[in-house]
Amino acid sequence: MPPGAVSTLIKIAVASLLVGMALSFFGLDPLSVLEGLGETAKKIYEVILGFLRWAVEYVLIGAVVVVPIWLALFAWRRFRGKG
């Protein structure tokens, strides 16, 4: 085997394991991935979009509190001459 081949094979195996675990988390198995590649991409897209819709709501709620506090602290530091 050429030098570095074992290292490359281990990296590929670890990457495959991580991707496989992620796909399993989304409820996918190897057969379903091969049978419906288009549906798989659509399913992954829908899961990601659902997560983003969920996350944006909480980011906005948090921003209502965090941004005014940050602005007040920023202004306080600026007016005291430490910014």
List the helices and strands and how they pair.
Elements: H1 5-25, H2 30-35, H3 37-80
The total beta strand count reads 0
Mean pLDDT across residues: 87
Helical segment tally?
Answer: 3
Strand content: under 5%
Distance N to C terminus: 59 Å
Structural class: mainly alpha
Shape: elongated
The H/E string reads HHH
Number of domains: 2
Residues in helices, as a percent range: over 70%
Q: Segments where pLDDT lies below 50 for 5+ residues?
A: none
Which radius of gyration do the C-alpha atoms yield? 23 Å
Q: Can you summarize the main beta sheet?
A: none
Description:
The chain has three helices and no strands. It has 83 residues and is mainly α. It has two domains: 1-35; 37-83. The chain is elongated and about 65 Å long. The chain starts with a helix and ends with a helix. 0% of the residues are buried. The model has no long low-confidence stretch (mean pLDDT 87).
Structure at a glance:
This protein has 83 residues and is mainly α. It has three helices and no strands.
Based on the model shown, name its key terms.
83 residues; elongated; mainly alpha; 2 domains; 0% strand
